[in-house]
Amino acid sequence: MSFIHIVLLPVSPSAPQELVDKVIADLNRLSEQISFVTRSSCGKTVTQRGRQYTHALLVELERAEQLPEYANHPAHQAVLANIKLIVAEETLAIDFNDTA
Description:
The chain is of the alpha+beta class.
């Protein structure tokens, strides 16, 4: 069983595209930088169903107990600083145990 962390990002239309691209690339590399992250995937929505949320991040951890360690990891903190520069408002996160 793994643990899933999903974040919805409302990227500001005025955010520099170069920085948005960097954030996406950095988020996609988290699984290479944090040993217990088994998967990380970020991208822009291809529909208009997300309302104000334009991008989504999916991170899979080995266990739920690792979420605080993930949140405080230097690789996560570095990309989080850039996320704060591109979002228009609060992000939305949801976490759950993957029982499939």
